[in-house]
Amino acid sequence: MLPDDISTIETTVRAVLRDVLGLSEARAAALRDDTLLFGAMPELDSMAVAGVLTELEERLGILIEDDEVDGEMLETFGALVRFAATKAPR
Amino acid sequence: MIDHYDWRGGREAMLRFGPETGPIVVIAMPLFEEANRTRAFVVTLCRALAARGVASALPDLPGQGESLVPLETCSIFDVAEGIERASKADWEAGRALYSVAIRSGAILDKLALFSGRWHFAPQTGPELLRDLKRVKQASIGARVLLGDLWYFDVAKPEGVEDQHVEIAGNRISTSLLTALSVYEPWRQDDGGHVRTVRLDTDRKPADRHVPGTPLWRRAEPSNDPALAALLADDIAAWIARCGG
């Protein structure tokens, strides 16, 4: 995968978290590779996870199976970006 | 103005906006939780339409919102009948009728006699069913993975009627969920004018893509007056092109 693709995916994941969780621009911009998500970010409860996954599917044109969803992929912002990158069409 | 309409199952409330003559749009809200999340936005849209001289009616649908009819007793036809009955008086008065459907509202505007159907970010029945499954899965955790027949009780004795499924506080009948698995929005080939508008973050085809936020995904209801104004312009111009 080209660096440009990763950058696009990261921008998309950031925008999805901002739009679905209602984060301010400043909070969304402050998300770093090691920023903790599930369990650390109060807005990201299990219901919100469903919205984030569906919105990611729509914006990236990918399909996420329920058995692929686990705590690890949602642990940090970086982990979620890497997961999305493995699903995105090359 | 608060109005009402009658259907087989009782009486439902309906908000009216804008002029008492001329074309009128009947709003088909999304089903279930997304209706709560988009209601403030839809009312803003109705007011923006009124400011452009376009009348609108926003009906409570059977089993949805403030309706006194329990959702678990409703079929998809009961809910869609709400749209048809809500538009009846204006149809009889000879007004030009259009639907404006948001998200899964796009599968509810089939029974009424509309000159045209305008759909915003339309969601098909199977797409909604997939969302509901994901929400149900989130509520039970990852210990048990829901299968394809997740909304049926396969262990129940033969002859016993299927029960409803509770999904994020909504009790939905298995027959309604089954209907969703095959329900698609009205298309151009089905007749009349059809226009589809989507957010520019949505990759699916549309007549127009517009900037804005997917308010229907927000846990806390929110609003987007700039998007409402943009959509109201689009709807008003489209109705004029359709012949008013």
UniProtKB/TrEMBL annotation, chain A:
Signal sequence, renumbered to the chain: none
InterPro entries in alphabetical order: ACP-like_sf, PP-bd_ACP
Limits of the Carrier domain: 7-88
Protein name, as recorded: Acyl carrier protein
Taxonomic classification: Bacteria, Pseudomonadati, Pseudomonadota, Alphaproteobacteria, Sphingomonadales
TrEMBL record, chain B:
SUPFAM superfamilies listed in its UniProt record: alpha/beta-Hydrolases (SSF53474)
Organism: Sphingomonas populi
Name this polypeptide is given: Alpha/beta hydrolase
InterPro entries, A to Z: AB_hydrolase_fold
